[in-house]
Specification:
alpha+beta, Anthranilate synthase, 10-stranded antiparallel β-sheet
Length: about 375
């Protein structure tokens, strides 16, 4: 399908007020979409379902599914076009916003000092007024500017319109192979990946990595944790660790794995329950799908066998594996009535400085606002 036909189908689906999701995976030239054939809100029940899942931050709330059996799948290839930004926006971020967020951070630090939790991730939203820019313009800008991110546009007439370009994988499962990313720590990108990280950022990264490995232990074996590396995401750099393992066939349960991992300390805190409760009671707005997760659930993927003398007669055949790829919903926005609600946050520990934490959220907001 040509890219022109692809985007015309998306536009028609939107005007018909029917759900859809369009997305481009990291380092991929293919843009895929699911066009749901009705406006029913389907929910994930046991994680045996097949389709595209869109889950909220609060894991007590339902995750929404666009089922493969009630959707039409389309795909196109799309090369990098000239990146264009729009000057028709007005950013709402005032001194009052700064003061409120700094007070929230200081309250979080005090709670840590009182041993309520070890870490908490606190966020805020900025409102950008849009003019003469469509959601497809924003989506294509996300694709063009962030080739290493998972870029998406998700719409349900009974839920809302969300777009984003997230650098973080929650989990990836291919057959019985499992991998997950631990991403934490943030600095502005200054032309090099050779940066110096302070102890606060290193500890924050280690907290996330330890949480993942400890909670995965009942479900996996042969865990391998990579060295920590510095990676670029937009105008920022982060610390990243990759965790890989083999799923235990006798104890594998995708619903339980997602339940123990989400939300991770990278978007919530540690211990998880008191940190999440603090967030829900003190942030002053509802995150809904920000810091939730999204992606392909139980897709069937054909994998060609290795070529070689011993299996030469099998080269014509391919193996079918069930694959799940879920991404943390970061660097995202919700579009409501020609306004973009941009969400940003940062990890707070006892070593945090409230002014620097505020500046980190400002840097993160630039990633998304730069494409509007």
């Amino acid at each position: 399908m040509t890219s022109e036909d692809f985007f015309e189908r998306i536009q028609k689906q939107y005007h018909s007020r029917l759900p859809f999701v369009a997305y481009r995976k990291p380092n991929d030239h293919a843009i895929k979409a699911l066009l749901q054939t009705n406006d029913v809100i389907y929910k994930v029940e046991n994680y045996h379902e097949k389709g595209f899942v869109f889950a909220p931050f609060d894991d007590f709330e339902a995750s929404i599914l666009m089922p493969l059996k009630h959707s039409v799948a389309i795909e196109t290839s799309y090369g990098n076009e000239d990146f264009k930004t729009s000057s028709n926006m007005n950013v709402s971020c005032h001194e009052e916003d700064k003061n409120n967020h700094i007070k929230l951070i200081e309250k979080g630090i005090k709670a840590i000092e009182n041993h309520h939790f070890e870490k908490v991730v606190l966020s805020r939203q900025e409102i950008v007024s849009l003019s003469n820019v469509s959601f497809l313009d924003i989506f294509m800008n996300l694709i063009n500017k962030y080739p290493l991110a998972f870029a998406y546009c998700w719409y349900h007439p009974k839920v809302g319109l969300w777009l984003g370009a997230t650098p973080e994988t929650l989990i990836k499962i291919e057959g019985h192979q499992f991998s997950m990313m631990a991403l934490a720590g943030t600095q502005d990108y200054k032309g090099t990946l050779n940066v110096v990280w302070n102890e606060k950022e290193k500890k924050e990264q280690q907290i996330v990595t330890d949480f993942i490995t400890e909670n995965l232990e009942p479900f996996v074996e042969n865990i391998h944790v990579s060295e920590v590396e510095t990676v670029k995401a937009g105008n920022l750099v982060h610390l990243k660790t990759m965790i890989k393992a083999n799923l235990k066939i006798d104890t594998y349960n995708l619903k339980q794995i997602v339940s123990v991992l989400h939300p991770t300390p990278a978007v919530c805190g540690l211990p998880k329950l008191p940190a999440k409760q603090f967030i829900l009671e003190n942030e002053g707005y509802k995150r809904t799908f920000y810091t939730g997760y999204l992606g392909e659930l139980n897709y069937e993927t054909n994998i060609k066998p290795r070529t070689g003398h011993r299996n030469i007669e099998n080269r014509a055949y391919s193996l079918s594996k069930k694959c799940t790829q879920l991404y943390v919903n970061l660097r995202c926005m919700q579009i409501i009535d020609q306004k973009a609600y941009v969400y940003v946050g940062g990890g707070i520990t006892k070593a945090s400085n409230s002014e620097r934490e505020w500046e980190e959220t400002v840097s993160k907001s630039k990633v998304i606002k730069s494409i509007l």
